[in-house]
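Continuing from yesterday's entry. The apo prediction looked reasonable, so today I'm repeating it with flavin mononucleotide included to see how the binding region is handled. Same sequence as before; SMILES copied from the compound registry.
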Amino acid sequence: MLYRDLILRQLQFLPPETAQNLAELFLRHETPWILLGKFFNKDISELNTEICGVPLSSPIGLAAGFDKDFRMLRSLSELDFAYITAGTVMLHPQPGHSKPRLIRDVERKAILNCLGFPSKGMEFVINSINSTSKNRLAPIFGSISGTDIGDLKESCMRLASFVSGIEINISSPNTAGLKTFHDPIRLSEMITGVRDKTEKPLIIKLPPHKNESNEIDAAVKLVEVCIDSGADGITVANSHPIKDSRLSVGEGGLSGSGLLESTLRMVSCFRSNFGPRITINACGGIFTGDDVFSALNAGANTTQLYSALVYRGPFAIGHIKKELLMRMKSEGIQKISDINSIKTISD
Ligand SMILES: Cc1cc2nc3c(=O)[nH]c(=O)nc-3n(C[C@H](O)[C@H](O)[C@H](O)COP(=O)(O)O)c2cc1C
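Holo prediction written out below.
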């Protein structure tokens, strides 16, 4: 515990991208994590659940962006994530925006970024998956993105057989062109095209919407289109657009604990509009077992987190699972499906 806090504190003094690269370097070495995993990785049957038919050890997954190039899959599995959303990988390699493009606000447990999809590209990612040992690997969802429907179809075609499902990111605040898929007709055309290329679960990662009637109506319309076009689920939501002159392009996405309230509001809005017709992953501000409980109670099937891994450290998932179990016990709840069944089973 003391060592963990000490290391986390040291990492927080480094420039954020250096700290991220250092963490990545550690996590690319599988052996120490496999050894540690034997002690920390505990199956708690009460937390078992599923996403779109894929069995999960718990409702806590890793959000996209932490393992952009699918290089840490085995170590992240040992950290006890129930599933890993790897990527976002682009079809072709690209460098992303110039630095500074990552800022940490430790006080607010927040992260600001304008990375702009740095990616080693699909070929690198496929090689990376092929060289990962498959033993005890958590289910992988591959996050893809792009503004061209043909590119997205090809990305899906090349990646789908290596993963349990595909998440399509139409919501990064750092790529203006992605807004093309906030238009219902274009969104429908894109999902139908990608759906044609795989039978694996297809999840659409949505942008956040404000609590204003015009934004709510537009967001509900987008989810209607997702369902009608053949998507199986939605991830709600991506980081929130923010202006900040410290970032190289003057704006970016905000992640972290401050997002929880709006995540719960959006999940609840979609669940009450669509009942059990869609799987929902709550993403944004999930830090504790209580947060996971609240998200499931609002109608989510699973949760995804990124910032909590940065601020609570590599053993965050073990702690969150224990907290969730304690909360379930105090509420007299035996299993995960009992938390959200009322909202997801009845229409
Ligand atoms: C540095 C950084 C990079 C990210 N990259 C991606 C990405 O490539 N694709 C994506 O869909 N989301 C990306 N995200 C957004 C996260 O997946 C998540 O939606 C957001 O951080 C909110 O969750 P959190 O509050 O648990 O961090 C990124 C977030 C951060 C902080």
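Comparison notes:
- The pocket of flavin mononucleotide is lined by residues 63-65, 68, 88, 102, 111, 113, 115, 143, 169, 172, 205, 238-239, 255-256, 259, 283-286, 305-308 (CB under 6 Å).
- The two ends are 45 Å apart (CA to CA).
Will overlay with the apo model tomorrow.
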